[in-house]
Write a structure and sequence with these properties.
two-stranded antiparallel ribbon, 27% helix
Length: 66
Amino acid sequence: MVLGAGPASPVSGCPEVAELEANLPCTCKVHFPDPNKLHCFQLTVTPASQSEMLDQDLAPQHHRDR
C-alpha cells in the first residue's frame, strides 16, 4: 500500500499498521489481503532508482546507542 494513493485500506486505522506504512522506504509496499489477519501480509520491494539510492545515502542515519 502506498500512502496517499487510492482508497484507504481497512487496516489503515490500526495504529501498528499506520506506523509500519509510515516507516517503510518508498521502494516498499505492504498489502493486507485479509484485514482480519494482520499477521498475513504481502511486502513488495522494487529496486530503487539511482537518484533514490543517492538520496538515501545522503539522509541522516539513525543509530541506537547501546
